[in-house]
Write a structure and sequence with these properties.
339 residues; alpha/beta; Rossmann fold; L-2-Hydroxyisocaproate Dehydrogenase, Chain A, domain 2; 6-stranded parallel β-sheet; 3-stranded antiparallel β-sheet; 10 helices; 14 strands; binds 1,4-dihydronicotinamide adenine dinucleotide; binds 2-oxoglutaric acid
């Protein structure tokens, strides 16, 4: 007998990330090839025709794992009874903007969706926020769903930054992605994030070497590497005139896949989740940490007590400060927003 279907919501499903994400959820990449999936696609009423087009294409994919698709334009229908929510729908930044410039416009969406989660969803629903500024939107969403859904069920996506870091290290060392383990993205999904390879390892032939030794270029690790990962989103906007979508959709699916199935033994992933005070990060801030996940309980744990040198502490302080400022601005915008 096949298991009960997993009901997954994708918001902004008519947008560019939505278009790349739904096929991976529907075809078993995220929840497994034997797991039936019901998809709920939400977008704004102006995008209904485009949303219907996505539904037709999903039908045409003839996927054995996809047992239902609903296209909706209201939160009540969208958030009903879901197991996972991929909250993508939000305004993307254009050339020259910082992600936090989106705060005033996008935070209202996440206030409203937090309330909808509280009203219509199950207490076990797990949420990934992709829409920028992702950490702060997740903070707001969790705040307005509080009382019904625990804060630990809310996360923001820094997996794209994590994947970018893996790829840069693999390129630099002439290895493959599978050879590089345990990079970390600390903090905000923004230009202040701290991509860190201090605790990473690289397989070279039959040896496992620490990343600093394998890379053998401290200047690159502490400068070029960090800024490449921090600025990757902006460079892609400059080149494509659109923000990253294929890689963002892949990262969102990696994030939920690992939350559902758990992380591999001896490995961690980067995930922005509510701080419990670890590493001196203020409690409740949605901060990217290294986490391990138990696939049986679907609970994440922050990897504790990694030694941090002064360089790391300074970088972490910068991104913490930015997140505190964003949080305060977002709370103000929510108070002012009459939703
Ligand atoms: N965290 C991360 O690593 C990344 C985050 N992003 C962010 O993801 C978001 C989406 O990006 P794209 O898909 O490229 O944008 P897009 O503009 O192509 O699509 C966004 C979709 O969301 C819809 N939408 C707007 N308000 C909505 C609402 N209240 N409810 C439901 N749908 C709504 C729009 O109608 C549109 O179809 C942006 O904020 C972008 O900055 C993008 C890449 C990576
Ligand atoms: O950079 C942006 O604002 C949009 C896409 C994004 O967040 C990213 O590519 O990292």
């Amino acid at each position: 007998m096949s298991p009960a279907p997993i009901r997954a919501l994708v918001t902004g499903a008519a947008g560019q990330i939505g278009y790349s994400i739904v096929i991976r959820i529907a075809d078993g990449t995220v929840f497994g090839k034997d797991q039936p999936v019901e998809l709920v696609l939400l977008d704004i009423p102006q995008c209904v025709a485009s949303l219907e087009g996505v539904v037709l294409e999903l039908q045409d994919c003839a996927l054995p794992t996809l047992v239902g698709v609903e296209a909706v334009t209201n939160e009540k229908d969208a958030f009903q009874n879901i197991d996972y929510a991929f909250l993508v729908g939000a305004m993307p930044r254009r050339e020259g903007m910082e992600r936090k410039d989106l705060l005033a416009a996008n935070v209202k969406i996440f206030k409203s969706q937090g309330k909808a989660l509280a009203e219509f969803s199950k207490p076990t629903t797990k949420v990934i926020v992709v829409g920028n500024p992702a950490n702060t939107n997740a903070f707001i969403c969790a705040k307005y769903a509080a009382g019904k859904i625990p804060a630990s069920n809310f996360s923001a996506m820094t997996r794209l930054d994590h994947n970018r870091a893996l790829a840069q290290v693999a390129l630099k060392t002439g290895t493959t992605i599978g050879d590089v383990k345990n990079v970390i993205i600390w903090g905000n999904h923004s230009g202040t994030q701290f991509p860190d390879v201090k605790h990473a390892t690289i397989n070279k032939g039959s040896n496992t070497v620490d990343a600093y030794t394998a890379i053998n270029d401290t200047n690159w690790i502490q400068s070029g590497f960090i800024s490449t990962v921090q600025k990757r989103g902006a460079v892609i906007i400059e080149k494509r005139k659109l923000s990253s979508a294929m890689s963002a959709a892949k990262a969102a699916c990696d994030h939920i896949h690992d939350w559902h199935f758990g992380t591999k033994p001896g490995e961690w992933v980067s995930m922005a989740i509510p701080s419990d005070g670890s590493y001196g990060i203020p409690k409740g801030l949605i901060f990217s940490f290294p986490v391990t996940i138990d696939g049986a309980t679907k609970e994440w744990k922050i990897v504790k007590d990694l030694p941090l040198d002064d360089f790391a502490k300074e970088k972490i302080q910068i991104t913490t400060k930015e997140l505190e400022e964003e949080r305060d601005d977002a709370l103000k915008a929510c108070d002012e927003a009459n939703i």
